[in-house]
Please model this.
Amino acid sequence: MAGLTGDRYDLTADNVAGSPEGKGVYQIERSDGTVIYIGQGFIRQRLLSHLRRENPTDLCVFGNRPTHYRRETCADAEAREKRLLVVTPTLCNQRSG
Model:
């Protein structure tokens, strides 16, 4: 599987609340490891907004039964997200080009 390979966390409000406040990338997954969505920004804030269903993609994300997430802090989150999206199939990210 391509994508983030660090620690895997249950997608719960308590776990997300313990995520870093800094910038980085994250991926939301199914229990079988299928990557549903890859995003970037302030990690804790972005994941909490997904849990509150505030994003246009959340209908797709939660329709695919997410159970876990991975995260990675990095200085250039936008570039890292773009690289991940090139090599990682996702169920809910829109493809450009």
Notes: The mean pLDDT is 95. The radius of gyration is 12 Å.
